[in-house]
């Protein structure tokens, strides 16, 4: 009874620290005793300050701005985001302890150093929501934990979820830093019929519909990125990189295959190439004949062989075809699109097969022989 009276008179003897306060103490200690820089996000326009939302293209400008304007500001993340969406992004380039100027490479080592060398307390009984980055001006972004590279900050963020597996998807076992990202991810597993709000296209998932609407119909995109060659504006890095490759024969970044030396402008394209060509991944299997395909679309096109359904109808003559590509080729007849020209007599044909037949019957040579002979004669 006497102990209970003492504890009431001195409430510090019994004190409950909420999870949010534990996060706050950990973050405040990191910011107070190191030179790391918090930031809100990175967009096409640049890196956004976590305190005042000003945007800077150069990371060093953000660091200078943060040091000169927000050194003594309280980083009150609890007002900005709720617990389910908690994630703090820190730039740890040239990370140092401000008490002894020791160099550290990661936040975990910084916390261990501050605890062991300077007796700074951290709460270790909570999930870690602090994500660390090393910001550079380069278009290529590296993961600080495993050195994987990505073309966009969004792709890097998706990758970083795998290093902070606080919440796990029970369908595919992917990990996420917070509950909000897990909830958003679970939408990718929802299958149904989702119609575009702007056109007649229909998608099997809500996420595909949203991506289509964002990148196809969003004419009022907030941020743009310019081509350094001609200053054309684009709403995504992929559009800009593809433009640079097609129109200027240059690439913002080259990703070379170490097996066949092919080069790609996006890392995702290189990964897809390796899986499809070199690893021969064929995960989409036909239930009728057992043939495997790399992507589902190829399987769907293959299934036409088995069901024979002709769903693509010509609006002019009502002929029907099993493939959209075949219908497009048929439409050249109605449009008098004679794109296949004979190299001998200059007659032009709608279909390539008609050109082949013409050359063999009228000139006594196959199209392949004619083209090979012309290549050999050219300087």
Q: Tell me the major beta sheet.
A: 5 strands, mixed
**Helix and strand composition category:** alpha+beta
> In order across it, which strands form the biggest sheet?
3-2-1-4-5
Number of strands: 21
| Residue windows where pLDDT falls under 50 for at least 5 positions | 1-14, 77-81
* Percentage of residues in DSSP E strands: 5-15%
Distance between the termini: 105 Å
Large-scale geometry: elongated
Put simply, the count of helices is 15
Q: Helix fraction? A: 25-40%
> Rg from C-alpha positions?
30 Å
Estimate the mean pLDDT confidence.
Answer: 79
Pfam families: zf-C2H2 (PF00096), zf-C2H2_6 (PF13912)
Subcellular location: Nucleus
Family: Belongs to the krueppel C2H2-type zinc-finger protein family.
GO cellular component, one term: nucleus
Strands, helices and their partners?
Elements: H1 2-9, H2 19-32, E1 37-43, E2 46-49, E3 55-56, H3 59-69, H4 77-80, E4 88-91, H5 107-118, E5 130-133, E6 141-142, E7 149-150, H6 153-160, E8 167-168, E9 175-176, H7 179-186, E10 194-195, E11 202-203, H8 206-217, E12 225-226, E13 233-234, H9 237-248, E14 255-256, E15 263-264, H10 267-278, E16 284-285, E17 292-293, H11 296-302, H12 304-307, E18 312-313, E19 320-321, H13 324-335, E20 340-341, E21 348-349, H14 352-363, H15 367-377
Parallel strand pairs: 4-5
Antiparallel strand pairs: 1-2, 1-4, 2-3, 6-7, 8-9, 10-11, 12-13, 14-15, 16-17, 18-19, 20-21
């Amino acid at each position: 009874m006497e102990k209970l009276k003492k504890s009431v008179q001195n409430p510090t003897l019994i004190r409950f620290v909420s999870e949010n306060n534990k996060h706050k103490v950990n973050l405040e200690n990191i910011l107070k005793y190191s030179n790391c820089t918090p930031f809100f996000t990175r967009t096409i326009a640049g890196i956004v300050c976590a305190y005042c939302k000003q945007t800077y293209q150069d990371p060093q400008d953000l660091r200078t701005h943060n040091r000169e304007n927000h050194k003594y500001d309280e980083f009150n993340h609890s007002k900005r985001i709720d617990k389910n969406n908690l994630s703090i992004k820190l730039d740890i380039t040239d990370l140092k302890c401000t008490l002894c100027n020791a160099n550290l490479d990661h936040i975990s080592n910084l916390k261990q150093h501050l605890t062991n060398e300077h007796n700074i307390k951290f709460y270790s009984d909570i999930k870690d929501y602090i994500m660390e980055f090393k910001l550079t001006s380069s278009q290529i972004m590296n993961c600080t934990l495993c050195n994987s590279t990505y073309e966009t900050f969004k792709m890097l963020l998706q990758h970083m979820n795998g290093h902070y597996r606080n919440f796990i998807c029970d369908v595919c076992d992917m990990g996420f830093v917070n509950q909000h990202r897990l909830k958003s991810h679970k939408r990718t597993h929802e299958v149904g019929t989702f119609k575009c709000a702007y056109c007649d296209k229909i998608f099997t998932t809500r996420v595909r519909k949203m991506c289509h609407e964002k990148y196809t119909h969003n004419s009022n995109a907030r941020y743009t990125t310019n081509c350094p060659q001609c200053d054309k504006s684009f709403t995504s890095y992929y559009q800009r990189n593809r433009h640079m490759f097609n129109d200027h024969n240059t690439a913002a970044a080259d990703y070379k295959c170490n097996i066949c030396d092919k080069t790609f402008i996006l890392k995702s394209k290189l990964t897809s190439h390796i899986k499809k060509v070199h690893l021969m991944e064929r995960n989409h299997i036909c239930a009728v004949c057992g043939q495997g395909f790399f992507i589902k679309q190829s399987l769907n096109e293959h299934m036409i062989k088995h069901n024979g359904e002709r769903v693509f109808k010509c609006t002019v003559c009502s002929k029907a075809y099993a493939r959209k590509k075949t219908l497009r080729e048929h439409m050249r007849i109605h449009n008098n699109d004679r794109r296949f020209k004979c190299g001998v007599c200059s007659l032009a044909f709608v279909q390539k097969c008609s050109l082949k037949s013409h050359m063999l019957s009228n000139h006594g040579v196959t199209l392949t022989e004619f083209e090979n002979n012309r290549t050999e004669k050219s300087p």
